[in-house]
Amino acid sequence: RSLVRMGNELRCQCISTHSKFIHPKSIQDVKLTQSGPHCKNVEIIATLKDNREVCLDPTAPWVQLIVKAILAKAQLNSDSPL
Amino acid sequence: RSLVRMGNELRCQCISTHSKFIHPKSIQDVKLTQSGPHCKNVEIIATLKDNREVCLDPTAPWVQLIVKAILAKAQLNSDSPL
Predict the structure, then answer these.
(1) Which of B15, B58, B82 faces A75 most closely, judged by CB atoms?
(2) I want to staple A17 with a disulfide (CB 3.0 to 4.6 A). Which of A39, A50, A57, B48 is the partner?
(3) Is the Cβ pair A81, B34 closer than 8 Å?
(4) Measured CA distances, B49 to A28, A30, A33, B35, B54 (Å)
(5) Is the predicted pLDDT of residue A78 greater than 80, yes or no?
(6) Which pTM value belongs to this model?
(7) Would you call B44 and A81 a contact, using CB atoms and an 8 Å cutoff?
């Protein structure tokens, strides 16, 4: 769960990942960081509603499901954001 | 494309969205913010490799595809992040 906060993330941001289920209701946002020279893994970091940041296991089915659910909900966005 | 940066995002972060295609290679990460009392739309904000932040149109097919591609790649993560 520990998160290494480097300036502009010149390396992996997650040392370990939280594999236990977190209810989507407590998740404010999820950030997917592409793999690259700085880190060979895709990283998924959730910001919880209490502002804690948690590294999620990108290979865990429930993590994939939560991101897909948010993405699917995005498709139903009304045109005006306000 | 303009982004309203409020403290802890008490309202929508995106006033408008960038609908023109952005090549995945120039995208460092994408952040999906759940809709909620603060904003009735799901918001997708990309951080580009030049550190610019761009609000993406969550309903645009190419945006959905890019997020799904990153997610799919995440499933191939090797177990050790380093």
Answers:
(1) B58
(2) A57
(3) no
(4) 24, 18, 11, 26, 11
(5) no
(6) 0.85
(7) no
